[in-house]
Design brief:
Pfam families: ParA. This protein is of the alpha/beta class and 256 residues long. It has twelve helices and eight strands.
């Protein structure tokens, strides 16, 4: 099987994009897939927290690869044990994470100097090949910039996360238009943080018609995530909750 590249994106911050990426990675690995997650939100990295990675214990990051200090696969950390409830049942399933640096100096350098975006593309393909991946998940920076456009352009699937919110609706329309121009093969909308009082089916239909794109799932606004406070992957802690079951629908579509 060729590696499927999936970008998770949202036009604005705070949509829950990183939690969705982490849980989708875990659910794919549970089904026996080899998955890598790359945190390309270099300005405000954070997905490593969900996998319980201590920044001081990380040897190399994506920043090190972009500045020529290591091969990209050297920055990949095996986080399977943190991601899965029972790793022994996943067979060959694995979750690997390429984190971005949390060091203030490294973030400042990116803001000041930028980096060669083409290197990202080379790094993505090198990871797929050298780590024999089934899926590469790219956790993008919100909004639209060069690395976001690159990630979307090389993706087999774009998971576009939005909340039932008018600012999100407008930004999502812009991003979808870009993705269509870049001819991304599969576009899936994930509606997150829907109130319990909402009719999920009606909301999915309304959004699907408005954007001419399928809604893979409507995820509830859940106190479980708030309680967890990013200290873990929810699918490993509460595998049968509504949020995780909603994400299984997304994984079904990615596999299909």
């Amino acid at each position: 099987m060729m590696t499927r590249i999936v970008s998770t994106h949202s036009y604005r911050g705070g949509t829950g994009k990183s939690n969705i990426t982490a849980n989708v990675a875990a659910l794919l690995a549970e089904r026996g897939h080899r998955v890598a997650v790359v945190d390309t939100d270099i300005h405000s990295p954070g997905i490593h927290v969900l996998f319980g990675l201590d920044p001081s214990a990380i040897r190399f990051t994506l920043n090190d690869y972009l500045w020529g200090r290591c091969a990209v696969e050297d920055a990949a950390v095996d986080v399977t044990n943190a991601a899965l409830r029972d790793p022994s049942r996943a067979g060959s399933g694995k979750v690997l994470l390429v984190p971005s640096s949390m060091r203030a100096g490294e973030i400042a350098r990116v803001l000041k100097e930028g980096y060669e975006v083409d290197l990202l593309n080379e790094g993505f393909h090198a990871l797929c090949e050298r780590l024999r991946l089934d899926y590469l998940l790219i956790d993008t920076h919100p909004g639209v910039n060069d690395e976001t456009l690159l990630s979307i352009a090389i993706s087999d699937c774009l998971l576009l996360v939005l909340r039932p919110d008018h600012q999100d609706y407008q930004g999502t329309a812009v991003t979808l238009e870009l993705a269509r121009r870049l001819e991304v093969p599969q576009l899936l909308l994930v509606v997150n943080k829907a109130l319990a009082s909402f009719d999920a089916k009606a909301l999915a239909e309304q959004i699907s018609v408005a954007y001419r794109s399928p809604v893979a799932a409507v995820l509830p606004l859940t106190e479980d995530l708030v309680r967890l406070g990013s200290a873990g992957v929810l699918s490993a802690q509460m595998p049968d909750c509504a949020y995780v079951n909603g994400l299984r629908q997304v994984v079904d579509q990615l596999e299909g």
